[in-house]
Amino acid sequence: MYAIILRGLGFGDEGKGTITAYLAHELGAKTVIRDSGGPQGGHRVIDGSGREHTFSQFSSATFQAGVNSYLSGGMMFKIPNFVIEARKLEHKGVIGAAERVKIDPACYLVTPMHTLLNRVKALAINKASRPGSVGMGVGEAVIDRENFADQALRAIDCLNEEVLRQKLDWHYEQKLAAAQAIADANKQDRRIAAILAEYRRWMPKKRILEQCQRFRVEYGHLLEPARDYFLSIKQAEYVLFEGTQGALLDPVWGFLPHVTKTCTTAKTARKMVLEHMPSRKMITIGILRAYATRHGFGPFVTEESGLPQNLLDAHGSSRPWQGKFRAGWLDLVAARYGIAANRGIDSLALTNLDRLSELNRVKICVAYCYQGERMDLVDRFFEWQPCSGGARLEAFKPCKKGEDRAGLAEVLFGCRPLEYRLFPGWKKPIGAAKEFKDLPMEARNYVSFLESTEGLDVPVSVVSVGERSGQKFLHNPLEKTGDFCLT
Question: What is the pTM of this model?
Fold first, then answer.
């Protein structure tokens, strides 16, 4: 029996949803667990019929009949979003979608008051130095989980009217006071005053209470403690763990302050397996685009503005809170760091290879150049050697337990690509490829380099050549060694 852990290796948007859906289908898996993140982690899937959905609080395999989702205690849960998503899925023909979900009662809630505080904080920060935010309030809910665990709202509180009212009273007043304090300190910013007035008008405490009460009536039966849930799936051959965002946004390993507040590496899933399913064999699959992208602010060494527009997803365009959607060449230095952040992976799922088909040549960055003055930080965070005019950075040093990573972003902002590995483009569509040999030689060489010791030294198990779930194929076993091999 296997626990298959799927994790993004970049800044998010790697294609975790479509890989989850594909592997659930290929393996016949009926259980997908979302073990971290929250409603901000949207995973877009297009099935074989062209039906499309961005899964947020359901697993990305929900289009497939009989596949069940579990939102673990590591998830941040937003009731209105869950209800809306359930209705959208019903409208798209997924009958009884909500009845195939179980929710850990320990999930902390994200409320509209978290959203309010998130947005006024973001507006109060200078845009040039803003860490970046999706604007949903997930980070504020995580702060409550860490600092006010006993007072913060959880899913189970919806079942107890007295506890719910007591916690909501504290929550509403505390968030409103915090938002008002920010507004008072930024009276010149009319946007903050406007958003605060808007929330006072359309989101009174009574409305949040009613949302929780309706959830209790309509969906309260979906709450199931982790121990009971894992007992119910103990006979499942495959259990998939669907991650959120990417390793380079992890609060421990990422480039502070441009990070998320929830774990994005395999750590949470592995801990869950060891606690509830210790006899299962764990297989970790890293997911990576064939080129690099980043949403919003933060360092992005290989960003290149002149790349074709088709590399920028139409659905992932720039957003008011999250910021600009950016593209660049694949960054081998960062990808290796993403693998290290996950304490290693067994294989790689490579997505969006088809997007490179228009290019005359394709590049992979293998080293940075730093020409700034903070060599103390370079020495702390990187393997480096002197080069003309600065320092050649070839690899991140491993993150030590408890190490302060502040300053890493400062170095990366001062870096530029120093050396690229160049590959000829293939200049032909590859969306119909069903196996590796169907790819043009140039595309095969690109993939093979990534697998090599010069590249990431990890086998590519899945190759994606198109948006639809069926436009993927298996290239190598899902794990490096052992007896498991999906054919």
Answer: 0.94
